[in-house]
Amino acid sequence: MKGRGGVATASGRIGLVLSVLLLLACIEVGRTAARAQSADPRIADLVQAGRVRVGLGLGNHAAAIKDPTTGEMHGMAVDLARALAARIGVALEPIMYPRPGAVFEGVRNSAWDVTFLVVDPERTAEADASPIYMQSEFTYLVPAGSPIRRVADADRPGMRIAVRRGDAVDLRLSRILKHAQLRRANDQVAGIGLLRSGRVNAYAAPRSTLLAIAAQVPGSHVLDDAFGTTSWAAFVPKGHAGRLAYVSEFVEAAKANGLIAQFIAREGLRGITVAPPSKTQ
């Protein structure tokens, strides 16, 4: 009995030693990864801060959604933010805004380090964009019995089109509409309310968004044609060329290894496709 007890004790000690060695190995792997990231001067400021601040606008699954019960955040931009933070090896600090169109209010006071949004000339004038990672179309949701059959039918005198204030679709239509009037809503719920109540003739948004919300307006349908293509990219404030290069590499890798496609499927984004590889890579 004593001999067996001695064997058991020895086995326990060996197991403890192995556990300690495994723990030390894991710590060393983490330190090696941290040193590798720290050695990359393009993101040295983020590593030193121990965080990456990502601007996130609430609104839809292509951007960010907050579960009203649990408070959990999800959405394409949230998925990418978490993946980027994990790649850098720092904590994610979400910088929240009430809608995607409001995120760029933070670029002027350096409130965030990176964001993931629809590309628009007004935005690229204020921040630098990575290669695009996914793309879709801008079009209209129209109610049952609408005379609007094609996009061109909506741009006529007397027509009213709802958009979310400051979103890329608002910026685009503000430049191209000749006759129809825009009715700006502060969020998607308000915009759909305008359409449901008959105060507007159409609601404009990316096709993926409209396909997801069409059931909220019984009898409505999404037009087959479009008034523009829409693309999503990562943005960094101007003056951070190294960070832009690092984030651009992250985006290209996420497209190539299937991560973007995985996130699109997980978020149920219909009408959105992964962007092709950047020609500059």
Textual characterization of the structure:
This protein has helices at 2-38, 44-49, 76-88, 121-124, 151-154, 168-176, 188-196, 207-213, 241-256, 259-266, and strands spanning 51-57, 65-66, 73-74, 91-97, 114-118, 127-142, 160-164, 181-185, 202-206, 221-222, 228-237, 273-274. The chain is elongated and about 75 Å long. Helix content is 40%, strand content 24%. The strands form two sheets. Strands 1, 4, 5, 6, 7, 8, 9, 10, 11 and 12 form a ten-stranded mixed sheet that branches. It has a two-stranded antiparallel sheet with strand order 2-3. The protein has two domains: 41-134 and 232-274, 3-Layer(aba) Sandwich (D-Maltodextrin-Binding Protein, domain 2); 137-228, 3-Layer(aba) Sandwich (D-Maltodextrin-Binding Protein, domain 2). By secondary structure, it is of the alpha/beta class. The N and C termini lie far apart (69 Å).
Care to give the gist of this entry?
This protein is an alpha/beta fold.
Strand residues, percent: 15-25%
| CATH level 3 topology of the largest domain | D-Maltodextrin-Binding Protein, domain 2
Distance between the termini: 69 Å
Please, what is the CATH homologous superfamily of the largest domain? Answer: Periplasmic binding protein-like II
**Major sheet attributes:** 10 strands, mixed
Mean pLDDT: 88
